[in-house]
Amino acid sequence: MTHSLDRVGPERMSRRRVVLVFSAWILAVVGVLTVFVFAPTALHAYDRAHSQVIKCDVSRAEPSSVSVQSTNSSSTNLPRVSIKTKNCGELTFERGVTDGNRDRIAAELDGRTCEFTVGAGSFRLRAFLGVLRVAPEVMSYEVVR
User: Fold this and answer.
1) What does the alpha-carbon distance between residue 31 and residue 78 come to, in Å, rounded to a whole number?
2) Rg of the chain, C-alpha, whole Å
3) How are beta strands 90-93 and 137-143 bridged, if at all?
């Protein structure tokens, strides 16, 4: 009876197995790049070219910020307004928001009905993006009532 420890030297992989392992690695790398680099870039470009106006009942709007890390280990907080709506899901508003005006913007939106201009692609994919904790970004808004 031979034991696995009795073998001498490395076991050679067949050429077919090498090709399969290499192909799996390439496919994995392409998949990761697609999901984390190409898809967000394409979605952002699509959103810039295809905006959509939606009418939403805001249930809560609150000032917040997002922390961004740079490559030299420094971080900065970018102000924004997080918007929760009854019929449109969660949205974020960052354009033109500063530390000085985010409280005013949140108070202006809170409990009101608003028309938001958002990217059409992000808005259609909001359920999937919500799983990734990404909310569609508001480009502009107008308080209706």
Assistant:
1) 30
2) 24
3) parallel
CA distances from 130 to 35, 42, 91 (A): 15, 18, 10
Q: How far apart are the first and last CA of the chain?
A: 85
Residue whose C-alpha is closest to residue 84's, from 106, 59, 48: 59
CA dist., res. 80 & res. 65, Å (int) = 5
Token pair 């898809």 in the structure block, residue: 39
Closest CA to 134 of 95, 103, 77, 89: 89
pLDDT at 104 over 90: yes
Nearby residues of 109 by Cβ (< 8 Å), 6 or more positions away:
58, 61, 81, 83, 93, 141, 143
Residues 6-42: pLDDT tens digits?
555 556 778 888 899 999 999 999 999 888 888 889 9
